[in-house]
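Hi all, a correction to my earlier message: I attached the wrong file for Branched-chain amino acid ABC transporter substrate-binding protein. Here's the right sequence:
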Amino acid sequence: MFNKTRFGVAFALGLSVSATALCAEEVKIAFIDPISGPFASTGSNGLHQYQFAADQVVNEKGGILNGTTFKVDGFDNKASPQDSLIQLQVAIDQGYKYIAQGNSSGVAHALTDAIEKHNKRNPDNRVLFLNYSAVDPALTNDDCNFWHFRFDANADIKMDVLTDVIAKDESIKKVYLIGQDYSFGKAVAAAANSMLKEKRPDIEIVGDELHPIGKVKDFTPYARKITASGADAVITGNWGADMLGLGKALVANGYTGPLFTYYAAGSGITAAFGESGKDVIRLVTEGQVNPPPTPEAETYYKAYKAKYPDGNVDQTRIYNVIGMLAAAMEKAGTATDVVAVGKALEGLEYESIWGTKLYMRPEDHQVIQDMHIAKHTNDGVTFDYDGSGFGVVVESTVSMAGMDSATTCKMERP
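and the right structure:
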């Protein structure tokens, strides 16, 4: 199925090239995510990874379509849906045709709805939404639309992988669920309840609660409840400052794990856990960093660290967004006709330098890819996070996770 073609190889063979490809252009990508506030470190690190990927994958290789280059600019949304809509309009007014966002499914819902409405009203000025990390399943189910493409596995796919691991561990009898109180946190809890009941009906859910997103300064009361519950394992979808705060409080209050997470790596989180998180934290992730799966991945990571010594390539899917977008443009023969680029993305097959196969499922625009379970450790770490000496090492892999997962999406195409 996968021909291991990357966009720089003769990808457009046999395809007609439009007039757009006859001259070099600049593809402007608006990165709408938090660059200030409690989630600033997460957003700023993501922006750097986008800008670096654009340079490494496209610009420094001479561009695509006869020299077309990528430019990624940050638009601070402060993790707010309302501010995101303001920044979206600013970006559109400034000529950005591609919108990248990932932190908060609540923001993603606001953006995808606004983009769909804008594109209906402005057929000559349409934009595409590149969702790299907002994983509420609804975005590629009932709330799907043609203009939205998700490059991360959704919460249900990730939970399926996590609960497979939990189900095999007979020592786990009690599980505590905790997450942020918004659409994504609720989706994680619902999936965990449903899948654990199916796979391990003997497991007792000893806690199931949500907390305000980005507002809890001290997670000690939550950690004490979790420890007192006798939980053998904790599942959380927390990210950013909320992941860091929860994890630190758990360790400080005597919890020894395992802690099954979606986003417990990088952005200061790995350094904060250090030795206390070793063999405790488990992370479901789409890309392998340790050990580097390909020579290209090792070269890429070293180049990133040379430019950003304090940074991490902890969101390998960002590389995949840029690579797949470039491949779709080559296939479509245009960088500016977002309808043509969107149709080229549908069904696109791609093999990343991170050892991950990807397939953009046409029926719902949900990327399908290999998923890994990795553990927090300092053993066998080629590339650490946060300069801490600790990183994540892959323990197991599910090939093309979610390939046969159901979707309720009813796609309307332009």
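Sorry for the mix-up. Residues 1-22 have pLDDT under 50 and may be disordered.
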